[in-house]
Amino acid sequence: MKGSSRKEVVLKTNGLSKRFAKRWAVKDLNLEVHRGDVFGFLGPNGAGKSTTIRMILTLLRPTAGSIEIFGKDLHNKRRSVLSRVCGIVEKPDFYLYLSAFKNLDILGSMTRSIRTDEIMEALDAVGLKSRAFEKVKTFSHGMKQRLGIAQALLTKPELIVLDEPTSGLDPQGMKEVRELIKKLSMENEMTIFLSSHLLSEVELVATRMAVINHGELMVQGDVSELLERETTEYSIQASPLDAAIKLIGDLPWAEVVSTENGKIEVHVSPGHSSELNRLLVTHDIDISSFYPHRTLEDFFLKVTEGTSEI
Amino acid sequence: MKLFWLEIYKTFSRWRTYIGFGFIALIVILTEVVMKLSAGEIVNRMMRSPQKDFLIFGNVLNGWFVTAFIMNSLHFHIPFLIALVAGDMVSGEATSGTVRFLLIRPPSRYRIITAKYVATLFYTTGLVIFLGVVCILPGLALFGSGDLIAHHYGKFGIVFIPEAEIPIRMLFAFLAAIWSMTTVASIAFLLSTLVENSIGPIIGTMAVVVVFLVIGNFPFDFFWSLKPYLFTTYMVFWQRFLDDPIPWQEIVRSATILGLHSFGLFFIAFGAYARKDIKS
After folding, report:
1. How far A205 CA sits from the closest chain B CA (Å)?
2. Of these four, A44, A167, A193, B209, which has the most CB atoms within 10 Å of its CB?
3. Whole domain around residue A264: which residue ranges?
4. Is pTM beyond 0.90 here?
């Protein structure tokens, strides 16, 4: 929570729950998203991410609990709240028989009056200005994804909710979307709530995150703090290698696991990775790479340690 | 109002919407041309029976007669064309996935569903008006005007309507047809809010219309007793404007029953959709 505890809470869920027949898809979920956050909402497939997002965007009615956005109850102040929110749920689907321009015009004008130059500006921001008047049925999946982001930007919302925004995109597309998310957060000061099942993706863009599994919150907090707390294994490419191995071997909170192809695999106790990096540098050891081994699977295993289901 | 125009724009941007108009134009004009080419034979058949008792002269096979004839013939086809669009109005958004964009906007589901319903009624009205225009204008151009000989509703016999009275009676008949088709549109619309594909509401609507028509026409006492409770019984009340004298009381009763059906169906759709979880 470091650095964000004083910030305004933009989105808050209180005991949010949703049951389908006898199965709880989301149970007693308490999330807190602060202004300016890029909030990563992580979980494996079927964890309850989309159900939560659908409740936040009023597509599903919660079975229990409540949602507050901008300090207002979503159920009671739906209209005023949603005029400041936008999102994409699952894949972006548009009216295929209409142009990109007309799609944005229709969707945008449901929130407020939209000028032509605002539509073109939104299309320009996602690199689709030249295709503005082409029918969406001619667009690739990546282009539709970008158009989805354009419609989210159009009304200049304060909170954008994105459900798996890079799903189905090629690496270049994923990179573009990630950069766009960063840009929106930094330049436009938008708060972004994005779900993903890819830890690496969240790590690249998010400032805070929450992990959900089987509909229940596992952990929530600053990305760097959480990952630092949980990550123990690093891969280091250093020169001279022998000096690095010796130095690490002398540290009480680090242990060399293996050396392979000029790389050292090191277990580091939580909170010491920066110190290790600094120590290597101050001992005149050149570091070509220093990166953690993090997979969502590992992370889940760690954060759910003690639970038998993972 | 803005939501309504957005719905109208979307509806009339789809080729599916024009199938009904194209079908009507094709079938009506084709019928009129065939009737024109077989005019002698038709008049002979028409007059065989009445000429035994009456001395009939003048333009019998005129544009008004052709219009009444086509309206009688198409009262089963038009519901299908209406269901084609009305049944897709809400479910189409679920099928295409656009419902997820639509319902996360500030306007409430109540307003969105109302705008869609009004757009459905707009299409229904447009289709019936188009039928009227395509029947009457080429009909009068091809066959000219004259008195109308119509079948006496529910009785063996014919009715003669003077030429001067026909335009206003036709206007009322088409307004009544619009009112009847509104009920069909409401059924399709309700089904459209309950499912997430368009085929179900279209087939479902036609199934309801066909089953009710069949039940209402079975010559058994049990089915006859059900007839007053079937909306299809009142659907052809437009024909009563071509009766003599015009049975206003029956017309008002039929219009009220159909209106209550439409309102009830919309009310159910309204309530069901407002509470519906969008999982698609």
Report:
1. 24
2. A193
3. 232-293
4. no
